[in-house]
């Protein structure tokens, strides 16, 4: 596992909106494949986050247009730029989120996602194909490595 500060893998794009932004405007922005989530900022402070799943849930319930603040997830789980990738991944897992706004104090610095962090974390299970003879563990005094007889 590579344990590096989160600021080295933070997306620095300005994918942010204000709480009063209409939901249909947020939905249009989320159609861009390079925009995984929209961080909701109020006077530069992270107050929420809106993802595609928030839009889908909203549309499933109503067809009316409302401001983003009615569907954003809040309060928001965040991470500081100096915290490690491991800390960010643990926070995502513990809070059940896939995107974390990165902030220094109340200043928004960027966004990381589970996809962004994946290359920096070890996999729990490795798929290993073994093409040699199986290792046999013998009794005391016997070789653990197969021998030719």
Automatic annotation (TrEMBL):
Segments forming domain CBS: 1-65, 72-128
A Pfam family the protein falls into: CBS
Superkingdom of this protein's organism: Archaea
Signal peptide segment: none
UniProt keywords, alphabetically: CBS domain
Listed name of the protein: CBS domain-containing protein
The organism of origin for this protein: Salinadaptatus halalkaliphilus
Upper classification of the organism: Archaea, Methanobacteriati, Methanobacteriota, Stenosarchaea group, Halobacteria
